């Protein structure tokens, strides 16, 4: 970038000198020449300052790229970077209550994330793998011999990780019968997918599904729809259950109301009987009050 600025500046200076020479030859005004020289000097200063800023920016970019390259060369940092990307993707697509990060299983193995849908057969382990070392050499190799050699080593790396995931994160009675291997690099994933040795099929035989970021994004979207339907179904079942319980409560209330009604009717009947008895007593009392002048025969009636 600095070289380009220097070339442009040199071109401007040479052009200005040639222009000045021609102006003098034609009897040009020296004041105009002085003004143009001043303007050229100002433009040169601006170009020099811009070149410095661009140089500083380029240095910053180079440093950033170098740091990123060093990170990719460091397996531990590379793994951490991949795990962070996996976590971001999972948190973006699934509710937090289904995600258990850095979960330790009963065999002492710790998985990057356990997608837990509630029961043992629905707990899916997902682990990130970069698989980059031999892949870079394989892609940068030029001779057929080196390409075959490092491609074979790369594919062996892939299958080693598949077997590790299968043995570590699939536990009968504790997890789902399958697990997921997350490959952060799309280009690495394409090489796995395009392998004539059917690495994807061999992974499936080990109950491991290999996914890239884009593949996982689509898979998580499908799971998200399923979870929404599942949650709606759970809520519907809950409503149906509550309606059933309300129906039972209404039945018990009806039985108790009928029982109270029977008791009320019994009390009402007893009140009627009491009233009849009271009426008879009152009638006899009235007859007693009217005894004067009444014969015995009439009283006995």
Layout of secondary structure:
Blueprint: H1 2-25, H2 30-73, H3 75-93, E1 99-104, E2 110-116, E3 123-129, H4 133-140, H5 144-169, E4 179-183, H6 186-193, H7 199-205, E5 208-211, H8 213-289, H9 296-300
Parallel strand pairs: 3-4, 4-5
Antiparallel strand pairs: 1-2, 2-3
Give a brief outline of the structure.
This protein is of the alpha/beta class. It has helices at 2-25, 30-73, 75-93, 133-140, 144-169, 186-193, 199-205, 213-289, 296-300, and strands at residues 99-104, 110-116, 123-129, 179-183, 208-211.
How would you portray this structure in words?
The protein has 301 residues and is an alpha/beta fold. Helix 1 packs antiparallel against helix 2 and helix 3 packs parallel to helix 8. It is elongated. It starts with a helix and ends with a helix.
* DSSP summary, beta strand count: 5
**Describe the biggest sheet?**
5 strands, mixed
**Alpha plus pi helix count:** 9
Order of helices and strands: HHHEEEHHEHHEHH
> What is the radius of gyration computed over CA atoms, rounded to a whole number of angstroms?
47 Å
How much of the sequence lies in strands comes to: 5-15%
* N- to C-terminal distance: 141 Å
Fraction in helix = over 70%
> What would you call the shape?
elongated
Q: Structural class of the helices, strands and pairings?
A: alpha/beta
Strand ordering within the main sheet: 1-2-3-4-5
Indicate the mean pLDDT. Answer: 75
Q: Which ranges are low-confidence, i.e. pLDDT below 50, for 5 or more consecutive residues?
A: 64-74
């Amino acid at each position: 970038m600095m070289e380009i600025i220097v070339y442009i500046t040199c071109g401007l200076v040479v052009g200005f000198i040639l222009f000045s020479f021609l102006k003098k030859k034609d009897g040009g005004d020296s004041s105009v020449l002085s003004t143009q020289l001043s303007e050229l000097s100002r433009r040169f200063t601006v170009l020099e300052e811009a070149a410095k800023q661009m140089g500083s920016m380029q240095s910053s970019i180079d440093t950033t790229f170098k740091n990123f390259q060093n990170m990719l060369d460091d397996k531990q940092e590379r793994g951490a970077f991949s795990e962070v990307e996996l976590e971001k993707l999972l948190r973006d697509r699934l509710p937090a209550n289904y995600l258990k990060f850095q979960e330790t299983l009963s065999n002492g193995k710790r998985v990057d994330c356990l997608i837990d849908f509630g029961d043992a057969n629905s707990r899916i382990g997902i682990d990130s793998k970069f698989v980059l070392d031999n892949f870079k050499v394989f892609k940068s190799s030029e001779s057929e011999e080196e390409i075959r050699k490092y491609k074979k080593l790369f594919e062996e790396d892939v299958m080693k990780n598949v077997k590790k995931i299968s043995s570590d994160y699939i536990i009968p009675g504790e997890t789902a019968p399958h697990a997921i291997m997350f490959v952060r690099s799309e280009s690495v994933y394409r090489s796995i997918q395009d392998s004539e040795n059917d690495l994807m099929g061999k992974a499936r035989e080990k109950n491991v599904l290999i996914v890239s970021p884009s593949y996982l994004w689509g898979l998580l979207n499908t799971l998200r729809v399923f979870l929404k339907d599942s949650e709606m179904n759970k809520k519907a079942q809950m409503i149906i259950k509550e309606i059933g319980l309300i129906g039972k409560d209404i039945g018990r209330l009806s039985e108790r109301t009928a029982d109270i009604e029977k008791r009320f009717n019994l009390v009402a009947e007893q009140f009627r009987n009491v009233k009849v008895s009271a009426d008879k007593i009152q009638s006899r009392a009235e007859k007693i009050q009217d005894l004067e002048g009444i014969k015995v025969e009439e009283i006995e009636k």
